[in-house]
Amino acid sequence: MKKDIHVVGAVIIKENKILCAQxxxxxxxxFMWEFPGGKIxxxxxxxxxxxxxxxxxxxxxxxxxxxxxxxxxxxxxxxxHLTTYKCKLLEGTPVLTEHxxxxxxxxxxxETLEWAPADIPAIxxxxxx
Length: 129
What we know:
By secondary structure, this protein is an alpha+beta fold. Helix content is 16%, strand content 44%.
């Protein structure tokens, strides 16, 4: 039986652009695009996990707003439960620690990237805003 993996993603919005992060070559789904974030640890709320992950991965402080989407997607390695939240950058400039590249794109430009399948429902929702 496949393992359930609960993750969160940050839809970080700045000046009407959304932060997109490309997965590194050594990760599962190499070079696919995603919203930055990560796994929810035992005892953490999704919001706590997201703040911690963005601090660890991008050295930034964020304010978490409303939920964008919740998606369940079955990959080879497990069943991912992804919850994405709109976020505002409070402090810091995103840096590359785990990702190969980052880009700021308008909602309409999001569909030009090759996204990890679990992120696509959120992309479709954001692209129509």
